[in-house]
Amino acid sequence: MSAATSTSTHGGISSKISHTGQNISSSVQELGSASSKQTNKEKAKGHTGLSWAGRAKAGVKAMKDSVTESGHHAAAQGHHTMAKH
Fold first, then answer.
1. Residue among 32, 34, 40 nearest 60 (CA)
2. Cys bridge to 26: 33, 48, 60, 76, which one at CB 3.0-4.6 A?
3. Which of the 8 DSSP states describes residue 80?
4. Which sequence spans correspond to the domains of the chain?
């Protein structure tokens, strides 16, 4: 009976470690997307001397980065919650 308890506990610990690692990974990816978004926002504002077409592209990239950032944030929150339980 103690073997079953040990296996069950091991699975729980393994799952928590996995979710913690995934949480960290998602958080790092979120930060990368946020950084890219800020860079593209500055380009879109015209602080880099880009043409209007380049600025428009940067604006679109900033919006995509924002969506990606939100997705990574949601994933990180989910993994954080799962790691707690």
1. 40
2. 76
3. H
4. 2-84
Q: Name the token pair of 74.
A: 């949601």
CA distance 33 to 40: 10
Token duo for residue 49:
């001397």
Q: What does the block give as tokens for 9?
A: 């506990």
The predicted-structure confidence for 53-81, as pLDDT tens digits, reads as follows 999 999 999 999 999 999 999 999 999 99
Q: Which of 60, 69, 32 is nearest to 50 (CA)?
A: 60
Q: How far apart are CA 34 and CA 66, in angstroms?
A: 7
Residues belonging to the chain: 85
**pLDDT tens per residue across span 11-38:** 688 889 999 999 999 999 999 999 999 9
